[in-house]
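Sequence, please.
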């Protein structure tokens, strides 16, 4: 079992594909590297793909508890250096988005490009006058979810999270029971992640200095606030491309893998992204 000893934690990882640009997949909250299973076969035909479990998820140990976004970005940088996979394309989902942005801003020599699907940067909503009330509702909602977890009501907390990111009523009930159990078990870590201000609001000074190509995607079936966040984030970036996946929602790697990988590969392979 491939394990990297990184900064006080043991990180599980897999590398698939022997040719093409090195690429790393950064999973979001409540899941582990297996969330990428449906897109990995397609991506690895064209790229050398690293997938891994962030600390505290899957087969990776938690190690010392620090600020999650800073810790995850530093972990990823150390893992890439250890495996000599650089510079790398970073593909991130949801909470993985702030991690990818932090890595690219602080260690740009390690990164070729960044692709993010629907980073839930609720702080950006709160910073925009037109959406400030909506942003505050989400920030208050995070507090209520934290309170549920503190009371030991992890299933109710996980249900709240799932319903926030779905336009379709009953999304929680449609999940297989093992998935619901897994999500509930990981809610303690979710609370830690979203207690970190950097998971809600990126450092604007870092974004304005980021010159690497960035792809921001949104699902046409996702709640509209995620596209609003994407637009707000795009305004802070210099070299950014925005694209929609009309039929997909918050997890296109699960529901629409062919469409999602097509968009990603077009962005990565049709551009001549130079190494540093």
């Amino acid at each position: 079992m491939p394990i990297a000893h990184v900064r006080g934690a043991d990180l599980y990882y897999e590398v698939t594909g022997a040719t093409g640009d090195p690429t790393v997949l950064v999973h979001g909250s409540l899941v582990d590297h297996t969330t990428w299973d449906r897109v990995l076969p397609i991506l690895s035909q064209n790229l050398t793909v690293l997938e891994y479990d962030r600390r505290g998820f899957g087969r990776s140990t938690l190690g010392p508890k620090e600020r999650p976004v800073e810790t995850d970005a530093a972990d990823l940088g150390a893992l890439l250096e250890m495996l000599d996979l650089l510079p790398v394309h970073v593909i991130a989902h949801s909470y993985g988005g702030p991690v990818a942005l932090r890595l690219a801003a602080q260690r740009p020599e390690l990164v070729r490009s960044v692709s993010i699907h629907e980073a839930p940067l609720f702080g950006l909503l709160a910073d925009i006058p037109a959406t400030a009330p909506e942003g505050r509702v989400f920030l208050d909602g995070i507090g209520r979810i934290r309170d549920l977890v503190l009371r030991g009501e992890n299933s109710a907390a996980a249900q709240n999270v799932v319903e926030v990111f779905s336009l379709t009523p009953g999304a929680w009930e449609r999940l297989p029971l093992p998935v619901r159990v897994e999500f509930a078990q990981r809610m303690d870590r979710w609370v830690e992640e979203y207690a970190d201000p950097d998971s809600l609001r990126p450092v604007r000074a870092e974004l304005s200095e980021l010159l690497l190509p960035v792809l921001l995607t949104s699902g046409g079936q996702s709640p509209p606030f995620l596209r609003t966040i994407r637009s707000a984030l795009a305004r802070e970036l210099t070299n950014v491309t925005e694209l929609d996946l009309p039929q997909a929602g918050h997890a296109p790697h699960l529901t629409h893998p062919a469409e999602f990988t097509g968009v990603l590969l077009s962005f990565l392979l049709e551009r001549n992204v130079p190494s540093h």
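The chain has two domains: 3-126+203-269, 129-193.
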